[in-house]
Design goal:
Elements: H1 14-21, E1 27-28, E2 31-32, E3 40-44, E4 51-56, H2 60-76, H3 78-82, H4 85-101, H5 103-114, H6 118-137, E5 147-148, E6 155-163, E7 166-170, H7 176-189, E8 193-197, H8 204-216, E9 223-225, H9 230-239, E10 245-249, H10 252-261, E11 268-272, E12 278-281, H11 287-299, E13 311-315, H12 319-331, H13 352-367, E14 371-374, E15 392-395, H14 402-405, E16 412-418, H15 421-429, E17 436-440, H16 444-453, E18 458-461, E19 480-481, H17 488-492, E20 494-502
Bound molecules: 1,4-dihydronicotinamide adenine dinucleotide and magnesium ion.
């Protein structure tokens, strides 16, 4: 199934070759099983366009089977009732250890599937996925109810926090394993049975991890993975009345469909969506830090981050200086295949569809008079088989253009000058999104005042992009609802039961 990859790639591990040699099947009830239709789809290396593997194409029938399996596992209670919270902790902890043990395999799978540099999946995606599980491994023994001081004096009242049940998790392709882990770690810690649908562009790492759950001690049916297309497997999961909750990360457009699709059984929904995050550089900032930070705020992960700092506002008196600094910083960025022996800093964008979408925005901006200080085109030559783009920094743009209002999800930033604090608060908040915002300043009053004034779920000051399992993450406005990570994520995956006992 695996096509021969270019010669300049890091050699594939034997485990990776073996995994990709056969069609990779959905994982249901503790085993890989062929989909009902017996159909498969291809997954590709965006750096070379070559096929990596065929993958079982889960559809409605497979969703029905997976939901039934997960429901039986949930109702049998092996996972959340019979297995003690301490034992559940151990399973999640062991899964984290197994991910660390198989880190190199998983790093290769995510780099192949997504295109991002191997050095990035080795240092970020995979270790952070393990860390996420270690954090949530601590929670099963700490998910507490309360004793309520009710005023009816012959009554004793307390609450229990129980798992929601069967949970559908729909993940994106930008950090394939990590985004899935953000969802399944808290869902499992809370005692749910999960059905994960990875993005069709990047299904491999989740399917590999599925097998590890067995060795970690998860009862069959607790952890299921259905690879497939959004409109098929994804939509069927959303509409299924046996699914109690959907956790989703992806586009606003699909989020609306998910909300509509969920009405049948009024399942719980949490949404982690896109952004057009404002990044504000004040003249009183440590400019060296701000220049490097703002460059990576947008170009990190090739702009394919929901928190990308894609609207860059620079105080007018330092505008030229900051742009010149960023231009220099960008000139040092190497773009190339994620699996190349000579590791690049950035890989390709994930698909030809994404390439077209991003280039559409770039051409439109150029037509409207934007100046590309860096980039502005696709990369050809040695890189022509992949979906490679130059990191693009636009000036000469205004707040009202599509390129400065819509999420591009690629390496494209719009830099615009501003003159004063009140002006910039209004401009920064004039957006449908509210996932993240950030600012660079050495004035502590300004920092705190803006932290309050900016309408976004995360504010970064003199830094960009930090997240950690312990700290809640999510959006204001159309960037979604619900908070992943931290103890807040447990609220997404539990229901509260109030128990009354008459005591006289
Ligand atoms: P998408 O929203 O279509 O895909 C995300 C996930 O949703 C995938 O697993 C997909 O299979 C699934 N999905 C698609 N249609 C579905 C449906 N009708 N029902 C249920 N599940 C469905 O995102 P896509 O098309 O890959 O990218 C489009 C844009 O979305 C990007 O340019 C970016 O702006 C945004 N996006 C944002 C992400 C984030 O981290 N917030 C991640 C991925 C995309
Ligand atoms: Mg889509």
């Amino acid at each position: 199934m695996l096509e021969k990859l270019p010669d300049n790639y890091v050699p594939l591990l034997p485990e990776v070759e073996a995994f990709l040699a056969q069609p990779v099947m959905p994982y249901i009830g503790g085993a890989y099983v062929a989909p009902y239709s017996e159909q498969t789809f291809g997954t590709y290396d965006p750096s070379s366009g070559r096929q990596l593997a065929q993958v079982g194409r889960a559809q409605k029938e497979d969703v029905n089977i997976a939901v039934k399996t997960a429901r039986e596992a949930f109702d049998a209670g092996d996972w959340w009732l019979r297995m003690s919270p301490a034992d559940r902790s151990k399973c999640i902890w062991r899964l984290a250890e197994l991910i660390e043990q198989h880190a190199e395999v998983l790093a290769q799978l995510d780099s192949l599937d997504n295109g991002k540099p191997l050095k990035t999946t080795q240092t970020d995606d995979i270790p952070l996925s393990a860390k996420h599980l270690y954090y949530y491994a601590g929670w099963p023994t700490k998910i507490e109810g309360s004793t309520i001081p009710v005023s009816q004096h012959t009554m004793f009242n307390y609450t229990l926090r129980e798992p929601v049940g069967v949970v559908g998790l729909i993940a994106p392709w930008n950090y394939p394993l990590l985004m899935a882990t953000w969802k399944f770690a808290p869902a499992l810690a809370a005692g749910n049975c999960i059905i994960l649908k990875p993005a069709e562009q990047t299904p491999l790492s989740a399917l590999y991890v599925a097998k590890l759950t067995e060795e970690a001690g998860f009862p069959p049916g607790v952890f299921n993975v259905l690879p497939g297309y959004g409109e098929e497997a994804g939509a069927a999961l959303v509409e299924h009345r046996g699914v109690d909750k959907i956790g989703f990360t992806g586009s606003v457009e699909v989020a609306r469909k998910i909300v509509q699709g969920s009405v049948g059984n009024l399942k719980r929904v949490s949404l982690e969506l896109g952004g057009k995050s404002p990044n504000i550089v004040f003249a009183d900032a440590d400019l060296e830090q701000a220049i490097v930070g703002s460059t990576w705020a947008i170009f990190g992960n090739n702009g394919q981050s929901c928190t990308a700092g894609s609207r860059l506002y620079i105080e007018r008196k330092v505008f030229d200086q900051v742009i010149a600094g960023m231009q220099e910083e960008v000139s040092r960025i190497k773009v190339g295949p994620g699996m190349a022996r000579q590791q690049p800093d950035l890989g390709p964008v994930v698909s030809d569809e994404q390439l077209d979408r991003v280039m559409g925005y770039v051409h439109e901006a150029l037509d409207q008079g934007a100046q590309a200080v860096t980039g502005g085109s696709r990369l050809f030559g040695e890189l022509q088989d992949g979906y490679f783009l130059e990191p693009t920094l636009f000036t000469g743009v205004t707040d009202d253009l599509r390129v400065s209002r819509e999420e591009i999800f690629g390496p494209v930033v719009c830099a615009m000058p501003f003159d004063d604090v009140n002006e910039i608060i209004d401009r920064a908040n004039d957006t449908d999104f509210g996932l993240a915002a950030g600012l660079w300043t050495t004035d502590v009053r300004k920092a705190h005042n803006l932290a309050r004034a900016l309408k976004a779920g995360t504010i970064w000051i003199n830094t960009w992009g930090n997240t950690e399992a312990a700290s809640p993450f999510g959006g204001y406005k159309q960037s979604g609802y619900g908070r992943e990570m931290g103890k807040e994520a447990l609220d997404l995956y539990t229901d509260v039961k109030s128990v009354w006992i008459k005591t006289d």
